[in-house]
Amino acid sequence: MSNSIETKCLHAGYEPKNGEPRSLPIYQSTTFKYDSSDDMGKLFDLEASGYFYTRLQNPSNDLVAAKLTEMEGGYAGMLTSSGQAANFYAVFNICEAGDHFIASSSIYGGTFNLFGVTMKKMGIECTFVDQSLSYEELSKYFKPNTKCVFGETITNPTCNVLDFEKFSKLAHDHGVPLIIDNTFATPINCRPIEHGADIVTHSTTKYIDGHASSVGGAIIDSGNFDWLKDREKFPGLTTPDDSYHGIIYAEKFGKAAYITKATSQLMRDLGSIQAPQNSFYIQLGLESLHVRMQRHCENALKIAKFLESNDKVAWVNYPDLESSPSYELAKKYLPNGSCGVLCFGVKADREGQNRFMDGLKLATIATHVADCKTMLLHPASHTHRQLTEEQLKEAGIPSDLIRFSVGLENADDIIEDIKQALELI
Ligand SMILES: *Cc1c(COP(=O)(O)O)cnc(C)c1O
């Protein structure tokens, strides 16, 4: 289908045949029935494709993954139980103990911890880099054992846009794939594969679900990266997997190698599956995603402009504001709007900041973002509470940063709420 993205939201992935359910069926079954032992044996050898156990694959999950894959312009995709699982699998499918990779230091705190602490314990080293450095400066961080580069389309919580041209050139000149977490932009506003990314990840928990109903993640592979070109670098994909009679993923599955390996090896062994019931909710979210994203962006821009003009507000960063350091990149890569998340600081000490946040009535304090309801969070006293001022600075998070996730309410109501809370400072 060469349909536009809006139509894909509704129709991609699942196309019911005569007499089949119009809505996505929930295959609430752990297992699948076969007529012969031989039929089932072929599945275990990866000689035939089909379902045998939901820990590896489930039709509801696959239909939703197929929709998201089409929306991102990818070749193959899979769902995971969370965004954390998606980012872990995306990197771990390439890197093993002794390997190194590079990530932007401005990525989501949960991913920062996963890469910098937990994966380090597994023998995988991550170097965090300032994504605004030049191509030449960033090139210095590559080592012979560097296996991939990771960044976010729009960084959470600092709301900066990645320079795709610089990062895809950087990764590809060094013979490694570029992995992009596209959670904040969603495929409605940006499709990283069109800008040189090889693999895209999502926390579907955010805008894709959109209604704070289910935690989830996704990985979409473009199929564009040639694992065999420098096969020594990617042994997991280019040498025999003994657990499947010596299959070599890149040789046997071509463009589907990466997702086939992640499913048949990582899902099999680690089991971070999405629940079929949650896939149904994600599917509902995807159907209206294009309408919601448009309104999120309209509302956020109005609120960003209001904040910018208010003298109790110290600073604002929203990619679609001309004053944003990301404005030019946003125009280039997100011409239809960025997302509904913005960040700002108010002119007050910590106590005054708290009076402002506690004084909001419509916007609620929540550990969540990119949702249909307006919510906010103060990283320095919530998600990044353990960090010192110095560490916050290293992560590029000003201690007064308020992450404000603009919902689908009437924008004037949100502005009124902010106005009355600013009076309390
Ligand atoms: C929330 C988030 C994640 C983690 O996703 P979960 O679904 O909460 O596990 C990863 N990346 C970004 C950009 C996020 O906002």
Which overall shape is indicated by the principal axes computed on the Cα atoms?
Answer: globular
Helix percentage: 25-40%
- Overall pLDDT confidence: 96
Counted by DSSP, the helix tally is 16
Q: What percentage of the residues does DSSP assign to strands (E)?
A: 5-15%
Give the N-to-C terminal Cα separation.
54 Å
Helix and strand content put the structural class at: alpha/beta
Name the strands of the widest sheet in spatial order: 1-7-6-5-4-2-3
The number of E-state strands comes to 12
Backbone CA Rg: 22 Å
Low-confidence stretches: none
Q: Main β-sheet: number of strands, strand sense, barrel status?
A: 7 strands, mixed
Q: Which molecules are bound in this entry? A: pyridoxal-5'-phosphate
What is the helix/strand order? HHHEHEHEHEHEHEEHHHHEHEHEEHEH
Brief digest:
This protein is α/β, with parallel strands linked by helices.
